[in-house]
Amino acid sequence: MDQLAVVKILDSVVDSLDIPESYYQRASDRHHSIADWLCRPDSTLARYSPHVTPQGSFRYGTVIRPIHHDAEYDLDSVVTLQIQKTDKTQSELKLLFGEELKTYARAHNMLSHLEEKPRCWRLHYADEASFHLDSLPCVAEEPAVVQGIMAQGVPFELAKRAVAITDQRHPNYLATSKDWLISDPRGFARWFEERTRVFAQSRLRALVE
């Protein structure tokens, strides 16, 4: 089999796994809709300046069609709030965030109930696209924690995006404490994008040639 035939086969495989461009647009619209809702003047979270960023496969450009016909596309977002970890317990912050999402669901006539997960809240969208959105509330990490991450060899541009996340399984979930789980989804996304940019550029050059 010659190289051209192999390329055609691989292209057909990619086409069968890829999703319609309209779905990417729909996912983007839903992320923006959530952000607008959380930042509206009447929002109980507006004073904490919510910063909503998409995460996961839709951000990385690695989404594939679900294998099973009844499976859903998984959207992920991280909502960073400008608040100190000791101002609220993890439980208080997560419940406050959940109440805003419940109000959002009612305002947008979403029939499915809001589903609570250990770390996030899940919104189900009832349409032909079969999306659900997992939205994770978090707060920006303290400078001392960022310094500790950098001490492990992580560049500042990635470490500064670290966040403290809520988790029902954490021993301090109900207590006022600085001890929260640490995560860095935005830093990972930046690292991933930087790593893949090299391959994307070489692919573009090859296509131009």
Can you walk me through this structure?
The protein has 209 residues and is α+β, with helices and mostly antiparallel strands. The protein has one domain: Beta Polymerase, domain 2 (2-Layer Sandwich), CATH 3.30.460.10. It has seven helices and seven strands. The protein has helices at residues 3-17, 21-39, 57-60, 90-107, 143-151, 156-159, 185-208; strands at 51-55, 73-81, 115-116, 121-124, 131-140, 163-165, 181-183. Strands 1, 2, 3, 4, 5, 6 and 7 form a seven-stranded mixed beta sheet that branches. Strand 3 (115-116) and strand 4 (121-124) form a beta hairpin. The longest helix has 24 residues, at 185-208. The chain starts with a helix and ends with a helix. The model is unreliable at 6-17 (pLDDT under 50).
List the helices and strands and how they pair.
Layout: H1 3-17, H2 21-39, E1 51-55, H3 57-60, E2 73-81, H4 90-107, E3 115-116, E4 121-124, E5 131-140, H5 143-151, H6 156-159, E6 163-165, E7 181-183, H7 185-208
Parallel strand pairs: 2-5
Antiparallel strand pairs: 1-2, 3-4, 4-5, 5-6, 6-7
Give the key terms.
alpha+beta; 209 residues; Beta Polymerase, domain 2; seven-stranded mixed β-sheet; 44% helix
Would you kindly provide a brief summary of this structure?
By secondary structure, the protein is of the alpha+beta class. The protein contains seven helices and seven strands. It has one domain: Beta Polymerase, domain 2 (2-Layer Sandwich), CATH 3.30.460.
